[in-house]
Amino acid sequence: MVVEKIGDLPFDAPEDTRGAFHEGTVYLVAEKIALPEDANEIILHEFVGHFGLRVFFGATLNDALLVIHKNNPLIRRWPPNSEGPTRIFSRNLA
């Protein structure tokens, strides 16, 4: 689903959100997407990265992400609930 701006999303999202996967729906934020290639990348990230991981891991996804966070020093630099590159962890831990 495409929304015009972040405020049009049916949930709270950070100001830099370009796309999101929420309750089974992939959202794209039009004002944050400059090129069609960007939209393709965001769709792939949201659908495969979030929906696909949730389908593959099911209820164990949060545990799997925490193991990655615990054992990967590059990821561990940011706390699980940070706004850094580990935002996937904060979304799934909530």
**Side-by-side strand order of the widest sheet:** 1-3-2
* Strands, total number: 3
Q: Helical element count?
A: 4
Outline, from the CA principal axes?
globular
How much is the radius of gyration in Å?
14 Å
| SSE-based structural type | alpha+beta
Outline the fold blueprint.
Blueprint: E1 2-3, E2 19-22, E3 25-29, H1 36-57, H2 61-71, H3 73-76, H4 87-93
Parallel strand pairs: 1-3
Antiparallel strand pairs: 2-3
Any overview of this molecule?
With 94 residues, the protein is an alpha+beta fold. It has one domain (2-93). The protein is 47% helix and 12% strand. The protein has four helices and three strands. It has helices at residues 36-57, 61-71, 73-76, 87-93; strands spanning 2-3, 19-22, 25-29. The chain has a three-stranded mixed beta sheet with strand order 1-3-2. Strand 2 and strand 3 (25-29) form a beta hairpin. Helix 2 (61-71) runs antiparallel to helix 4. The longest helix is centred in the middle third of the chain and has 22 residues, at 36-57. The radius of gyration is 14 Å and the shape is globular.
